[in-house]
Every structure is written in C-alpha cells, then in structure tokens.
Amino acid sequence: MATLHVDIVAAEGHIYSGDASMLFAPAAMGEVGIAPRHAPLLTTLKPGTVRVKLADGSELPFFVGGGILEVQPHLVTVLADTALRGEDADEAAAAASKAEAEAKLAGAKSEMDIAKANEEVTMAAARYEFVKKLKSPTR
Amino acid sequence: MAGAKEIRTKIKSVKNTQKITRAMEKVAMSKMRRAQERMARARPYAEKIRLVLGHLASANLEYKHTYTVERPVKRVAYLIVSSDRGLAGGLNMNAFRVAVRAIKEWKDQNVDVDVALIGNKSISFFRRIGGTVLGTANQLGDKPQLSQVLGVIKVLTDAYRNGQVDRVFLLSTEFVNTMTQKPTIRQLLPVVPVKEEGLLSHWDYIYEPSSAELMDTVLQRYIESQVYQAVIENAASEQSARMVAMKSASDNAGKIIGALQLTYNKARQASITKELSEIVGGAAAISG
Lengths: 139, 288
Description:
The complex is a heterodimer.
Chain A: E1 4-10, E2 13-20, E3 22-27, E4 30-34, E5 41-53, E6 59-72, E7 75-80, H1 87-106, H2 113-135
Helix pairs in contact in A: 1-2
Chain B: H1 2-59, E1 75-81, H2 91-108, E2 112-118, H3 120-129, E3 132-137, H4 146-161, E4 167-175, E5 181-189, E6 206-208, H5 211-287
Parallel strand pairs in B: 1-2, 1-4, 2-3
Antiparallel strand pairs in B: 4-5
Helix pairs in contact in B: 1-5, 4-5
C-alpha cells in the first residue's frame, strides 16, 4: 500500500514525523483528507486538529493553532502555529507590545491585562474543543 | 603581623567571587548547549517555509505583495535583539555599537530611523540615547517562545504596511561558534525571496484559497520565523559570551589570589624572622 510521509513542524521545534496512510487537516476552505499521490497543494489551516491515520488504522490527533499545509505526492508538511492566531490575537499582541514600549519608556505600569486575558480565553476555548473531541467515544 | 589579617580577608573575598564566576560559567555552558539544540530544532521550519516561499514567488510573478515591493526609502526601522541580563562580556555593547553606526549612516542620508526592541538591555540603552521606539518585548527567559515576540513583529509589519517605514532591518548577534559571536544586520522587509530556478516548468501547487492570499500568510510566517531564529540565536550567543566572560573572570581571580598569597607568605615570613631576631637579640643581651 502506498504511504505518505508526514512531517509536522512548528517554529519552536519538530512535532511529528512518520509514515501514514492518510492525513486529515482543517484547511481554510474546509476539512481536507490527503491520501498518497495527492496533487501538490498549498493551503492555510484553521485552528483545529490534524489527524494522522497510520497504516494500522489508528489515528494520531495533533492540535494546531493554524498554519500552512504543503502537499506533495508522497510528502505532506504541516507548518503548524503553536499559538492560537488570528486577527484579534495578533492585534492584541501588537497593542500589548506598543503599550509595553510606551510604559517602558515612561517608566509607568502597562495595562495589557485585558488583551492578555482575551488571548487566553480564545486559546482555552480551542483547547477545550480539542479535549472534548479526544474524549468523545464516537471518534 | 599587621597586614596579614587584611590580606587573609581579601583572599577570602576574592575566592568567594571566583566561586560565583565559576558557577556562572558552568551554568552558562549547559544553557548554551540547550540553546544550540533549540536553534537546531527550529531549523526545519525555517527551511521549509523558505522553500514554500520560493515556490510561491516563482509561481506568482505577476502578483506583487506589499512585503516584496521595494519603495523609496524615507524612514527605516531596526529591530534590535539583545539579552535580558548583563554579565555577558561585550555581547550587547558590540551589537549597540553596530546599531548606532547604522542609525548614524541613515541619518546622514536624511532618513529617519525608528527602533523596535527585544530584551531589557536594548530597552535601557535606547531609553538613554532616545529615539522613536515602536514596540518592545522583554523577559523572554531561557526558552524564548514565538508567541512572546509576535506583538513586536506585528507592530513592525503594520508600520511597513501603512507606509510608516519603508524598510525593516533585523539586528541580532549571530552565533558563529562558542568563542565568536558577530552582530549581524539582515533585511526583514521588503522580503527578498530566494527563487528556485527551473521549478515552474515542472509542476505547481494547487492553491487554496488563492495564491495571493496564501502569499500573505506565508510571508508573515516567514518574517516571524526569521525573527524567532534571530532571538534564539541571540540567546545562544548570550550564553556563550557569558561563559567566556566568566571563564576569564575566574582566571583573573585565580591570578589575584596567587599574588595575594605570595604577599601574605612574605609578610608572615618577615614577621617570623623579626620575632626570631628579637628573641636572639634579647637572649644575647641577658647572657652578655
């Protein structure tokens, strides 16, 4: 049976590498399933779960906070974002950095708690979804 | 034996200092090893994204993303990466010297320079010399995470998008080897993708959604991975610079202890000789 080499890498390090019979990923335009000999494809990923189906039929789930999926006929690379991303979170981070700069230079205390809390809430929500999915018996 | 006690105290205090510097050297050594591992771990992602970007760039010859367009330079920004802590030899000062020189060169051409800062040391340095600071990130610790620097990157890319700055440079200390670290300036924006020759003729990706939209994400990630690489490389440089600085401090402490010990021994010898001659002199006076 043809197999597919899967590499999941994040900026901070390597996450998974191995052979698989199929891979499912939450692409920007909807869930995609990649079988061996898939045409070369490049797409962005939404936050969610990348599932790697091994040759023996078992599945390995990986949580990604978004990222990029690159497919070549026998090679799939997931460039995963470890942190949950999106306009809001990025804006919050940018605002925090700016505020920090101002605070640092004025020597005052920064007020970035709200932005930080928001970020944590989005992250926690996505993690919760992921954990719920892991625990459900119908998977 | 008046001086002897003072010398003894001094030797003790130098010995204590030496203990500290030696401990710091050992700690820096193990931290450096781990920082190097982290550098190696981040490499696959950086390589992969460079490859994808090369593909995209050669596939999209007609589409020009803002991040790849050269503009006339009226204002530039420098992202300066430094360490959070000191006692790392000349690491930060060498980087700042390069930064100040670069800023001066731009100013001579009537180009304004903004800075964005990573690390406590650069923040306190630029607070002293002044200048427009766009954003900062600090307290990254020994294991810098990408999420800690995203904010400052976003500030810079936004400034570039808005036309506030026309070029963005990244200044960080490159880890050449344990003994050598070199402050290096790299251009972050506009991005100059490495085009792979002859790729286009063979095959191309299916792009989903459109290649233009993908370009946006890939470029952003590419910039982030470049900055992240610089940050972890700077961390490795910091540890190795500290290791070398602490090693020479320990050696110097050893030399000082040796010299002090010699003085102490001489003083002791002199006082013994003096006592002996006094006793002999006294005995001679009585018997004489």
